Amino acid sequence: MSVNWLQSTTEQRKALYKVAKSVATTTPLTLERFLNKALGITGDPEWGDLANIRNGKLAREKCQTLYDYLAKHHYEHAQTQDAELFPRRLISDVGAYIEANAHKGRLRIVLQDQALELVKRKANRPDGVVHIRPEQGFFFELNAVQSGYALAYQFYQGTYHPLPLGVDGETLMGRVIEGPQYLPKAYDGEVSILSEDEDLGDHQFIILTASNQKHLRTVDGLPFDLELLKIYSVRVFVGLHHEP
Questions:
Q1: Is residue 209 within 8 Å of 144, Cβ to Cβ?
Q2: Which residues contact 43 (CB under 8 A, 6 or more apart)?
Q3: Omega into 184 within 30° of 0, i.e. cis?
Q4: How far apart are CA 120 and CA 137, in angstroms?
Q5: At CA 149, angle to CA 16 and CA 39, rounded to 5?
Q6: Which pTM was predicted?
Q7: Reduced 3-state DSSP string for 154-219
Q8: Where would I find the H helices in the chain?
Q9: Which DSSP symbol is given to 243?
Protein backbone atom coordinates (compact mmCIF):
# COMPACT_ATOMS: atom_id res chain seq x y z
CA MET A 1 0.00 0.00 0.00
CA SER A 2 1.52 3.30 -1.10
CA VAL A 3 -0.20 6.25 0.58
CA ASN A 4 -0.05 9.73 -0.89
CA TRP A 5 -0.13 11.50 2.45
CA LEU A 6 -0.91 14.84 0.84
CA GLN A 7 -4.25 13.28 -0.18
CA SER A 8 -4.63 10.90 2.77
CA THR A 9 -7.99 10.11 4.31
CA THR A 10 -8.96 10.56 7.93
CA GLU A 11 -8.81 6.79 8.44
CA GLN A 12 -5.30 6.58 7.02
CA ARG A 13 -4.14 9.36 9.33
CA LYS A 14 -5.78 7.64 12.30
CA ALA A 15 -3.91 4.45 11.41
CA LEU A 16 -0.63 6.35 11.22
CA TYR A 17 -1.21 7.83 14.66
CA LYS A 18 -1.82 4.38 16.14
CA VAL A 19 1.48 3.16 14.74
CA ALA A 20 3.32 6.24 16.05
CA LYS A 21 1.77 5.79 19.49
CA SER A 22 2.90 2.16 19.60
CA VAL A 23 6.41 2.99 18.42
CA ALA A 24 6.69 5.73 21.06
CA THR A 25 6.22 3.11 23.80
CA THR A 26 9.47 1.44 22.64
CA THR A 27 11.44 4.64 23.27
CA PRO A 28 12.28 6.50 26.49
CA LEU A 29 10.26 9.51 25.25
CA THR A 30 6.73 10.49 26.09
CA LEU A 31 4.32 10.40 23.15
CA GLU A 32 4.38 14.18 22.90
CA ARG A 33 8.17 14.37 22.83
CA PHE A 34 8.37 11.48 20.39
CA LEU A 35 6.04 13.31 18.01
CA ASN A 36 8.10 16.47 18.38
CA LYS A 37 11.26 14.56 17.47
CA ALA A 38 9.64 12.74 14.56
CA LEU A 39 8.21 15.96 13.11
CA GLY A 40 11.37 17.99 13.65
CA ILE A 41 9.67 20.34 16.10
CA THR A 42 12.18 22.18 18.26
CA GLY A 43 11.64 23.88 21.60
CA ASP A 44 9.69 20.88 22.96
CA PRO A 45 6.23 22.53 22.77
CA GLU A 46 3.37 20.68 24.44
CA TRP A 47 0.73 19.00 22.32
CA GLY A 48 -1.90 19.39 24.99
CA ASP A 49 -5.04 17.52 23.96
CA LEU A 50 -4.07 14.87 21.41
CA ALA A 51 -7.65 14.54 20.20
CA ASN A 52 -6.95 16.08 16.78
CA ILE A 53 -4.14 13.75 15.83
CA ARG A 54 -5.94 10.78 17.40
CA ASN A 55 -9.02 11.56 15.29
CA GLY A 56 -7.04 11.73 12.06
CA LYS A 57 -6.75 15.52 11.91
CA LEU A 58 -2.96 15.85 11.79
CA ALA A 59 -1.95 18.06 8.86
CA ARG A 60 -1.24 15.97 5.77
CA GLU A 61 2.23 17.48 5.30
CA LYS A 62 3.09 16.45 8.86
CA CYS A 63 1.74 12.95 8.18
CA GLN A 64 4.28 12.55 5.40
CA THR A 65 7.07 13.69 7.72
CA LEU A 66 5.88 11.37 10.49
CA TYR A 67 5.61 8.40 8.11
CA ASP A 68 9.11 9.02 6.71
CA TYR A 69 10.54 9.14 10.24
CA LEU A 70 8.85 5.91 11.28
CA ALA A 71 9.94 4.18 8.08
CA LYS A 72 13.54 5.28 8.50
CA HIS A 73 14.02 4.65 12.22
CA HIS A 74 11.34 2.19 13.37
CA TYR A 75 10.24 0.23 10.33
CA GLU A 76 10.42 -3.24 11.85
CA HIS A 77 8.14 -2.39 14.78
CA ALA A 78 5.84 -0.28 12.60
CA GLN A 79 5.46 -3.22 10.22
CA THR A 80 4.21 -5.43 13.04
CA GLN A 81 1.57 -2.82 13.89
CA ASP A 82 0.24 -2.10 10.39
CA ALA A 83 1.40 -4.29 7.52
CA GLU A 84 -0.59 -2.24 4.99
CA LEU A 85 1.09 1.06 5.82
CA PHE A 86 4.47 -0.60 6.36
CA PRO A 87 4.63 -3.72 4.16
CA ARG A 88 7.38 -6.28 4.57
CA ARG A 89 10.11 -6.16 1.93
CA LEU A 90 10.05 -9.33 -0.15
CA ILE A 91 13.75 -9.15 -1.00
CA SER A 92 15.82 -9.99 2.07
CA ASP A 93 19.37 -9.70 0.67
CA VAL A 94 19.25 -6.30 -1.01
CA GLY A 95 22.95 -6.19 -1.82
CA ALA A 96 22.90 -9.54 -3.59
CA TYR A 97 19.75 -8.60 -5.50
CA ILE A 98 21.29 -5.35 -6.73
CA GLU A 99 24.48 -7.15 -7.76
CA ALA A 100 22.56 -9.83 -9.66
CA ASN A 101 20.05 -7.53 -11.38
CA ALA A 102 22.04 -4.40 -12.22
CA HIS A 103 22.30 -3.62 -15.93
CA LYS A 104 25.95 -4.21 -16.75
CA GLY A 105 28.06 -1.48 -18.33
CA ARG A 106 25.32 1.15 -18.38
CA LEU A 107 26.55 3.29 -15.47
CA ARG A 108 30.03 4.78 -15.73
CA ILE A 109 32.10 7.37 -13.90
CA VAL A 110 33.39 10.43 -15.74
CA LEU A 111 36.40 11.94 -13.99
CA GLN A 112 37.34 15.60 -13.89
CA ASP A 113 40.97 16.53 -14.42
CA GLN A 114 41.14 19.42 -11.97
CA ALA A 115 44.49 20.67 -13.21
CA LEU A 116 43.29 21.09 -16.80
CA GLU A 117 39.65 21.70 -15.90
CA LEU A 118 38.69 19.01 -18.37
CA VAL A 119 36.71 15.82 -18.00
CA LYS A 120 37.53 12.43 -19.42
CA ARG A 121 35.54 9.25 -19.66
CA LYS A 122 36.94 6.53 -17.43
CA ALA A 123 36.18 2.95 -18.40
CA ASN A 124 35.75 0.49 -15.57
CA ARG A 125 38.91 -1.41 -14.70
CA PRO A 126 39.03 -5.16 -15.36
CA ASP A 127 38.09 -5.79 -11.74
CA GLY A 128 35.04 -3.54 -12.15
CA VAL A 129 36.40 -0.77 -9.89
CA VAL A 130 37.08 2.86 -10.84
CA HIS A 131 39.85 4.69 -8.95
CA ILE A 132 39.00 8.24 -7.78
CA ARG A 133 41.44 10.51 -5.99
CA PRO A 134 40.20 12.33 -2.88
CA GLU A 135 38.56 15.64 -3.88
CA GLN A 136 38.71 14.70 -7.57
CA GLY A 137 35.59 15.79 -9.40
CA PHE A 138 33.40 13.24 -11.11
CA PHE A 139 29.87 12.65 -12.39
CA PHE A 140 27.82 9.81 -13.84
CA GLU A 141 27.21 8.70 -17.39
CA LEU A 142 23.99 6.69 -17.42
CA ASN A 143 22.71 4.84 -20.47
CA ALA A 144 19.14 4.30 -19.26
CA VAL A 145 16.93 1.61 -20.77
CA GLN A 146 13.80 3.71 -20.20
CA SER A 147 12.67 7.24 -19.39
CA GLY A 148 11.17 8.11 -16.03
CA TYR A 149 12.26 8.91 -12.50
CA ALA A 150 15.43 8.05 -10.60
CA LEU A 151 16.98 7.81 -7.16
CA ALA A 152 20.70 7.47 -6.49
CA TYR A 153 22.59 5.97 -3.56
CA GLN A 154 26.15 5.73 -2.35
CA PHE A 155 26.82 2.44 -0.56
CA TYR A 156 29.63 2.79 1.96
CA GLN A 157 30.52 0.65 4.96
CA GLY A 158 27.22 -1.20 4.99
CA THR A 159 24.89 1.80 4.60
CA TYR A 160 22.99 3.15 1.59
CA HIS A 161 23.28 6.95 1.61
CA PRO A 162 20.84 8.88 -0.62
CA LEU A 163 22.50 11.04 -3.28
CA PRO A 164 20.33 13.95 -4.52
CA LEU A 165 19.53 13.92 -8.24
CA GLY A 166 17.23 16.96 -8.24
CA VAL A 167 18.41 20.04 -10.10
CA ASP A 168 18.43 21.99 -6.82
CA GLY A 169 21.06 19.68 -5.37
CA GLU A 170 18.79 18.73 -2.47
CA THR A 171 15.77 16.92 -3.90
CA LEU A 172 16.47 13.20 -3.98
CA MET A 173 14.37 12.23 -7.00
CA GLY A 174 15.43 13.25 -10.48
CA ARG A 175 14.28 12.65 -14.06
CA VAL A 176 16.02 10.48 -16.63
CA ILE A 177 15.55 9.90 -20.34
CA GLU A 178 16.08 6.75 -22.35
CA GLY A 179 19.63 6.54 -23.64
CA PRO A 180 22.94 8.18 -22.64
CA GLN A 181 22.97 11.19 -20.28
CA TYR A 182 25.07 12.82 -17.60
CA LEU A 183 23.91 13.01 -13.97
CA PRO A 184 23.25 14.81 -11.72
CA LYS A 185 21.88 17.79 -13.64
CA ALA A 186 21.85 21.42 -12.51
CA TYR A 187 19.19 24.07 -13.20
CA ASP A 188 20.95 25.22 -16.37
CA GLY A 189 21.05 21.72 -17.78
CA GLU A 190 24.76 21.34 -17.15
CA VAL A 191 26.11 18.48 -15.09
CA SER A 192 26.85 18.96 -11.38
CA ILE A 193 30.32 17.89 -10.33
CA LEU A 194 30.58 15.56 -7.33
CA SER A 195 33.55 14.70 -5.14
CA GLU A 196 34.39 12.48 -2.19
CA ASP A 197 36.68 14.22 0.28
CA GLU A 198 36.63 12.27 3.53
CA ASP A 199 35.29 8.71 3.24
CA LEU A 200 38.14 6.77 1.67
CA GLY A 201 38.02 3.18 0.51
CA ASP A 202 35.51 1.09 -1.41
CA HIS A 203 32.23 2.65 -2.51
CA GLN A 204 29.36 1.59 -4.73
CA PHE A 205 27.14 4.05 -6.58
CA ILE A 206 23.65 2.84 -7.49
CA ILE A 207 20.96 4.47 -9.62
CA LEU A 208 17.42 3.08 -9.53
CA THR A 209 14.86 4.12 -12.14
CA ALA A 210 11.14 3.57 -12.73
CA SER A 211 8.60 4.81 -15.23
CA ASN A 212 6.17 5.36 -12.33
CA GLN A 213 7.52 7.42 -9.44
CA LYS A 214 5.24 5.55 -7.01
CA HIS A 215 7.51 2.55 -7.45
CA LEU A 216 10.31 4.59 -5.87
CA ARG A 217 8.63 4.81 -2.46
CA THR A 218 11.30 4.15 0.13
CA VAL A 219 11.72 1.73 3.01
CA ASP A 220 14.74 2.15 5.29
CA GLY A 221 16.21 4.52 2.73
CA LEU A 222 15.87 2.23 -0.31
CA PRO A 223 12.79 1.87 -2.52
CA PHE A 224 10.49 -0.92 -1.38
CA ASP A 225 9.62 -2.35 -4.80
CA LEU A 226 13.15 -3.15 -6.00
CA GLU A 227 11.82 -5.89 -8.26
CA LEU A 228 9.93 -3.23 -10.26
CA LEU A 229 12.97 -1.02 -10.85
CA LYS A 230 15.79 -0.79 -13.35
CA ILE A 231 19.10 -1.00 -11.49
CA TYR A 232 22.49 0.45 -12.47
CA SER A 233 25.63 0.11 -10.41
CA VAL A 234 29.32 1.01 -10.48
CA ARG A 235 32.05 0.37 -7.93
CA VAL A 236 34.79 2.87 -7.12
CA PHE A 237 37.77 3.11 -4.82
CA VAL A 238 38.48 6.52 -3.30
CA GLY A 239 42.08 7.03 -2.22
CA LEU A 240 45.64 7.50 -3.35
CA HIS A 241 46.36 3.77 -3.54
CA HIS A 242 44.10 0.81 -4.12
CA GLU A 243 45.18 -2.11 -2.01
CA PRO A 244 43.29 -5.36 -2.72
A1: yes
A2: none
A3: yes
A4: 11
A5: 30
A6: 0.63
A7: EEECCEEEEECCCCCCCCCCEEECCEEEEECECCCCCECCECCCCCCEEEEEEEEEECCHHHHCEE
A8: 10-24, 31-39, 51-54, 60-73, 75-81, 94-101
A9: -
Q: Residue 237 in contact with residue 203, Cβ under 8 Å?
A: yes
Q: Are 157 and 229 in contact (CB under 8 A)?
A: no
Specify the long-range contacts of residues 32-37, CB closer than 8 Å, at least 24 apart: 35/66, 37/69
139 within 8 A of 192, measured Cβ to Cβ: yes
Q: How far is CA 136 from CA 45, 110, 115, 197, 243, in A?
A: 45, 11, 10, 8, 19
What does the pLDDT read at residue 244?
Answer: 47
- Helix axis angle for 60-73 and 10-24, nearest 10°, is 40
Amino acid, single-letter form, for residue 18:
K
Q: Choose the weakest-confidence range: 35-44, 57-66, 196-205.
A: 35-44
Give, in degrees to the nearest 5, the angle at Cα 106 between 156 and 195.
40
User: Rounded to a whole number, what is the distance in angstroms from the first to the last CA of the chain?
Assistant: 44
Res. 233: pLDDT tops 90? yes
